[in-house]
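Running log. JK asked me to keep both predictions on one page so they can be read side by side. First protein, sequence followed by its tokens:
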Amino acid sequence: MAKERETAESPGGAPPLPPGLYFVATPIGAARDITLRALDILKGADLLAAEDTRRTRKILDLHGVKLAGRKLISYHDHSGPGARKALLEAARDGAVVAYVSDAGTPLVADPGFALAREAIATGAPVFAAPGASAVLAALVVSGLPSDRFLFAGFAPRSGRKAWLKAQLACRATLILYESPKRVHRILAELAEVAGQDVEMALCRELTKRHEEVLRGPISQVVDNIAGRDLKGEVVLVLGPVAPAEVSDAQIETEVGEVIGEMGVKAAASFVSDQLGVPRRRVYQLALGLASRNGDAS
């Protein structure tokens, strides 16, 4: 199935492609955001697989990539093991196999994880052709801290408040995808869990004609979209939430529960990690507690 690559060159004079499975990023909106390397792979692949073959055909047509007798097959999260087997066997047999999701980078809230895992487990070469990503685009335009961030995908349908609280505990910028139909609901939940004054950005239709970015405290963004029927792809970026102030009494209570088993130093270290409080502060309180209890261990 594979083309001869020892002497032939890929289209456009690009170097020959090593055989294997390629996860290729495609534009999230602006068609010209596709990379030159992505086009080389789509032109040079022996077999192409896509989350939605109709969308992929549009991308190929737009950029002048012809199938020329090559197969374009469907692969998504609901595809059975037989579909994965066909792709992996082709990659192991020396073919260049390219996989694309509807938009953006495969595996990032898109299909491809099971395919990548099985390819790695079976020894098939795996390559990434990076490019457009709504996660990184939203982070860049949000104006929020980018040194540490958590992408948590879509919030679950149930138990959302507890789930949001757990994500916010990471004390990093939080990035979420959400359906436009549920944006009002999740913003109300975020205001309740994180507080109305936490800075955020609502990013809609990134890189597209009707791109919109609303920045400010949660309460302000809620006011800005009140009564609106939002449409299009939505990414929410929430600034780090400051931890709640922990009192000395709370620290001593936590230390008192473990100090008998661990001793002062270990208890201080444990409680410091649990509460996110400086270790020196916890250690000083633990020493005082041990002294009052007559336990200097």
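And the second, directly underneath as requested:
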Amino acid sequence: RDDDGARPPRWPWVVGIVLLLLIAVGVAAFFLRGRAIEVDTTTAVALSANNDSAAVLQATGYVVARRQATVSAQITGTLTEVLIEEGEHVSKGQILARLDDAGYKAALDTARAQEAAAHAQTAEAAAQLDQAQHDAARFDAIAARGLVSKQQAEQVRTQATTDRASLLAAQRQAQAAAAQVAGAQVNYDYTVVRAPFDGVVTDKAAQVGEIVSPFSVGGFTRTGVATIVDMDSLEIDVDVSESYIGRVKPDMPVEAVLDAYPDWRIPAHVIAIIPSADRSKATVKVRIAIEKKDPRIIPEMGARVSFLEQRPRNAQAPRGVLVPKTAVAQREGKNVVFVIDNGRAKQTPVVVGADFNDLKQVTSGLGAGAAVVKTPPEELADGERVTVKSGANE
């Protein structure tokens, strides 16, 4: 209270508190405005402009190899040589690696020695049989003249029969020894790892000194030496929504665009529609054959494909570009996309067209090759600073 007992007014304190709050909000807004929003981006892809055909469906997928093998040894052993590197072209039968063969070489030599001994025993049994047969013939002649008893002649014939059985047993032993040699030779040959077909080495999985095995035994044992891909077997696998699979037909013409080369259109066609659906994604897999092979096409590349059908003469070519449906946002009742320009999100009004599976046609307002935000967050505004997530650009 003042000297005359009156209470001083409170409004100066209230005004001060309000001013402090406004300043705090302004500072917070300034700092929040200066912080970039992290987003995923994608590239707008032009619709096919082929004069003779029109796209009836768009889908995304990946380049895959129909013939790919992780090559391993068929026996367990230690690598002494690895003769390939990633990116190297190999031919069918080419030696990729060698294993320590000392033990298998010794086993092969032992088997060969046993085979030689079995053949020697066979030769000895054959000689004994020949002598016994001559003795039996001679004793039969002498017994016919009565010079020896029939019992002695019978004993000599029995000995010939016994020698014949001994020769047969020796021959069987020789065959078994030969089979052991063949088995030892196979194991010895397994110490050399060869390419099963022509292809390119995409992964070198083991080094000299490591143990490789055809079985997974844990520890430091490798189950593969290298991965080989037959580049002539590359094709594209795409997932098509169940709602649109009826538009796809075998041998249907297709145009493919790789994410890595958005301006390169690759002619292709449908190989087959896999008769099984993925219940979790409600999609059906479709195999696409690439008609023109090229070294730039490599496994696991992302691809977008356009399924084409013959367009009536004088029909207009499709217009616009394709973006994911999630890239089209609503702002003040209008369709917009956010284009990335110098690190900022530029709100761009667009006119949308038809749906193509999980993609949306943009007929105007957006050009091919533009980088757009894949799924704009609600707080994203025009001119907002953004950063692109690592590996997010598709």
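Observation for JK regarding the second prediction: The mean pLDDT is 85.
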